[in-house]
Amino acid sequence: MDTKDIIVAKLAEWDLELSDAELEQLVEPYENLLRWRGTVEDMLRARPIADGMQFPESEPLLSHALDKSDKKGGAA
Q1: Which terminus of the chain has fewer CB atoms gathered within 10 Å of its CB, N or C?
Q2: Does pTM surpass 0.70?
C-alpha cells in the first residue's frame, strides 16, 4: 500500500473523500510525519524511559480512534 492509499483509508474511516490534487498535497507531509515518528521512537527505544513501551504507541491518528469510539458510545 503506498502513502496515498494509506491516507485514503484513514480518511475513509471518517467518511471523508478528497480529490487527487488534495491527496497529492498530503503525501509528502504524511511521509515526513512517519519519518519523524520513527526518529522519535528510535530515540525513545535508546533510553530507559521507554522500557516496557509497546511501539507504535505514538500512532499519529490513535487518539482519533478513541474519540470516534467514544462518540459511538464504545468507550467509557
Answers
A1: C
A2: no
| Angstrom distance (rounded) from CA 64 to CA 33 | 16
Task: Give the whole-angstrom CA distance, residue 69 versus residue 24.
Answer: 29
Residues 6 or more apart in contact with residue 59 via CB below 8 angstroms = 37
C-alpha cell at 5: 492509499
First-to-last CA distance in the chain? 34
User: Which DSSP category does 16 fall into?
Assistant: -
**pLDDT tens for residues 57-68?**
555 554 445 455
Residue 20: exposed, middle, or buried by beta-carbon count in 10 A (0-12, 13-18, 19+)?
exposed
